[in-house]
Amino acid sequence: xxxxNKEIVRMEGIYKQFPGVLALENVDFQIYEGQIHGIVGxxxxxxxxxxKILTGALQPTSGDIFVDGKKVIISDPIVARNxxxxxxxxxxxxxxxxxxxxxxxxxxxxxxxxxFVSWRKMAKKTAEVLKExxxxxxxxxxxxxxxxxxxxxxxIAKQYFKKYRVVIFDEPTALLTSKDTxxxxxxxxxxxKEGVGIIYISHxxxxxxxxxxxxxxxxxxxxxxxVPVNETDIDGLISRMVGRDISDMYSITHQKLTEEIFRVxxxxxxxxxxxxxxxxxxxxxxxxxxxxNSGTTKIARxxxxxxxxxxxxxxxxxKKIRITSPSMAVANGIGFLPEDKKTEGLAIKLSVRHNxxxxxxxxxxRMGFVKGKIENxxxxxxxxxxxxxxxxxxxxxxxxxxxxxxxxVLAKWLVNQCKIFIFEExxxxxxxxxxxxxxxxxxxxxxxxxxxxxxxxxxxxLMGIADQITVVYEGTQMGTLSRNEFDEKRLLQLAxxxxxxxxxxx
Amino acid sequence: MIKDKVKKMMAKTKRITGRFHEMNILLVLxxxxxxxxxxxxxxxxxxxxxxxxxxxxIIGVVAIGMTFVIISGGIDLxxxxxxxxxxxxxxxxxxxxxPIFLSIIISLVxxxxxxxxxxxxxxxxxxxxxxxxxxxxxxFRGIAMLLTDAKKIIGLPVSFTNFAIIRVFGLPAMxxxxxxxxxxxxxxxxxxxxxxxxxxxxxxxxxxxxxxxNIRASIYKVYALGGFTSAVxxxxxxxxxxxxxxxxxxxxxxxxxxxxxxxxxxxxGGIGGVFGTLFGTMIIATISNGGNIMGINPFVLxxxxxxxxxxxxxxxxxxxxxxx
Lengths: 506, 324
Description:
The structure holds two protein chains of two kinds.
Chain A: E1 7-18, E2 21-32, E3 36-40, H1 47-54, E4 62-67, E5 70-72, H2 77-82, E6 85-87, H3 100-105, H4 119-132, H5 148-161, E7 166-170, H6 178-193, E8 197-201, H7 205-211, E9 214-219, E10 222-228, H8 234-241, E11 260-269, E12 273-281, E13 285-289, H9 296-303, E14 311-316, E15 319-321, H10 326-331, E16 334-337, H11 341-345, H12 352-356, E17 365-366, E18 369-370, H13 372-385, H14 402-416, E19 420-424, H15 432-447, E20 451-455, H16 459-465, E21 468-473, E22 476-482, H17 488-495
Parallel strand pairs in A: 3-8, 3-9, 6-7, 7-8, 13-20, 13-21, 16-19, 19-20
Antiparallel strand pairs in A: 1-2, 1-4, 4-5, 9-10, 11-12, 11-14, 14-15, 17-18, 21-22
Helix pairs in contact in A: 5-6, 13-14
Chain B: H1 2-17, H2 20-39, H3 46-71, H4 79-95, H5 100-124, H6 129-148, H7 158-161, E1 167-168, E2 171-172, H8 173-191, H9 193-203, H10 205-210, H11 215-241, H12 252-262, H13 274-293, H14 298-321
Antiparallel strand pairs in B: 1-2
């Protein structure tokens, strides 16, 4: 039996500064042998930043990390691996086309006396470990052929096999059924018994109560609390997670909402989201809020035709429309700003001019020929209006800074003159000044009578600028609140799937 | 002061010629021509130059379609086989008494359909273009061989085969076809929505899709265009050989890719242009022709061309890294 309280890792006074954002501020964190330590917090509270620092993917701006009481510098993920700290989802040594056994032995494949690979020895050892953990997978299966749940179990087993001392689970149950989740918990408990320190991150708060011993609450990069789970409850945790001031920064001039411009009825996609209904008015900013993997982005992409859906109808100006591809959405006056602007929004080898006009060519051409003058004018206008810093409109986008690249993706939709905009995390990863500029643009758009559907995982921002917010939890629409009903705690409860039967949810 | 002026001038030339790389490659071409002309005055002779243009026109036409396909982020290995297929179709039709003009039209349509079919498979089944067009290379060559029993079709009307000989304003008609297609190609690339979309897809297909560009239509069109230019080359080849040859154009895919890459088009898509390909084609042709006249071993010439292709791409990468 291992002693319950031998410390493995201690993080002290961790700060992490990103351009324009302090992601972590003086955070302390410890993990002991045989402990399951949960980390909870809203999106953007700093959970993944903390984990990335522990696994060497990021370097802290300041602060110390100790392993077994000795100070260490985790300069990259390999150092973390050598310290026997591993994260199930960030395992870099996974070869999906090889067998389970090969994955276990990757880098140290055993040889037989002739110098050839000893498949027998590998399979035998692997089978032993799998059996010990009660995982019903053959060592000779190709990893890619396993189900999501099996893959996850195998990866955990590998960390067990490698005798990792700290294993990090980041949203491990996101893709699992409840039966698989039980299985996962059984294995986690087995690891705990063996003295492994476990860090468990999940937005499903009830899971934290089911499996964790201790829970740390982060909010805005600060450690708010670190308490044993039996000394708190769901309400207590959520209260600690919220409580931020909604500063004036997020206030914009709202428009009087007049007529409906867009309506979604009974939108469903099996296993992803079901029966989503909402309507958006001219001049409205409509918020779509959910925690990690809630399905909000999937809903937005389904509306835009970027991903298929099974059922449901879309209406523009009360007329039913059919959208099965982004080009049809654009033809109907819908624009879409993806969250990952660089990889999904920009053609970085092309010029500023080309990128700004990317979605507008059908509108600025005759008989298939582009009207060059209008094209240039569009580009110049946007460069000026959005204050894009570039030597000229012929500049190749790859040479511009990240902030200016983001503006170009936005500019693409501004020249297109859409009626309905879908914005996925429009202010993610940009500094305060640029955020202000984005809010100004949103103001301008709604003033002109456009409607904006905004997906944001940052609640204070959404509460500041949205006229209505609908909350989605695991593909289910939990409720829609309008501006005068906004309440951070209530929204977060809805987003966490906490039942509020008696409450008057519309 | 002077620096600013130079910068301004460079920016202007850049606007006119498209990409800076095309200027470099044009410079290489001019240097090559001048040095061959100095070393041997037979090279610069009118007869030799027009001959050079005529013999290069066929691969030059193939390389135009190839350029578009590569800009879109794809590749077309079937060009030589489509060339042969359209050659035997045109020849078979003409020898069966179908009017020349109609035979040519049918053959061109056949080439475009061959390309379109590959485009459909590439987009709908999401099979990599390399695989689909590799299969096309085999299938279309096979069909051409089947149609002719692997024999050359001869006995074409003289009014057709004369096309390989006649000159317009002193230039070989075949070269004029090539140059006209170059101009059309430049217009498509620079001034049409289709052209813009092809660059966008080649640079970032997902971004293009989410911007509302119809990827399906663009992919269909670009491979149909590749098939079409191969068919045009097939017609030119038929006139030049005075017959439909099922074995014509083998290996042309690699020559066309070489010319395209040498001309500054990026194999990863999104960057390049038809002018560059014109210069790339001319450089390869000039080296073989000039080298032959000078009596340089043709195997050595092959090595030189290979080295040049690598140098061009390395130079391009270095320039990009410096952020020019």
